[in-house]
Amino acid sequence: MIFCSRNEDGEYAWKLIMEGRKTVTRRLKPIVVGKVVAVQPNRGRKAVGYIRITSCMLSTEWVFAMKGLNVCSELALLQEANREGFGCWQSLIAWFSNHKPLIRLDDTYRIGFELIRRNVNELW
Asked: Is pLDDT above 70 for 124?
């Protein structure tokens, strides 16, 4: 998977993954849970590490799950933004709003993952 986007502070998503600060991403297509995928800083670049997919659901399903757990919505949104590598939920929404072509958050899959291996041969 390619992780070349940046958060509101200009930090690359792939670096956040390698530091353990990003554990969730949203994509337009689902990914099979348990699948191991490469973390690439850009198209055609070598992998800097590997992640295992731990969960995959429609973003709207995640919202319903949080409501069902009666989780404080502000805290849940902050924690989710942090999992995505952003400082706050508004920054995450702004990233989607500024994306060209426009991606609606409701049209994405929430994909959870864990870092399982760093590629020590790749300098980053």
From this structure: no
